Amino acid sequence: MKRLFGTDGIRGEAGKYPLDSATVAKLGSALARFFGARNTDAPSFVIGRDTRLSGPEIESALRAGLEAEGAR
Question: Measured at the alpha carbon of residue 15, what is the angle toward residues 37 and 35, in degrees to the nearest 5?
Answer without folding.
Answer: 10
